[in-house]
Amino acid sequence: MFSKADKSKAAAAPARAVPSLVSTDLEITGNLQTPGEVQLDGTVKGDITCGKLMVGEKAAITGQIIADEVVIRGKVTGRVRARSVHLAKTAQVNGDIWHDSLAIEAGAYLDGHCKRNDTQPAAAAPAPARRAEVVAVGDGAGKQPAQGTAKTAAGS
User: Is 89 part of a structural domain of the chain?
Assistant: First the structure.
């Protein structure tokens, strides 16, 4: 029933790390950097670099965010650069968003530009036609999110 082989397999399985937490009563002035996940409910004045960032409704960030995945429910002032960005209906973002995938719920506030990570400067050669991902998120009133794709051409 229990053998040495079972113990070695269990020990070899990587444990998922617990996210780093910044609670509502904590204010940090300085940069945060981790390869893991951060759940932020407090205030950060500085840049954040992490694998996944969850910004709570009462959180406030002033600085640049660089992550693989970002979910924003609170206030962000600064640039967001991530593979996947999700703005919840309570999000308030003042700054540009660089993304591969972007979802914005109805009611979210965004004052800035949205650009794909693969966007080239205007002086570069024209980009070939590409498929852009379009995701609409419902307002939670029982409707299913609309999903689809749109074909875009360079320069349009």
Answer: yes
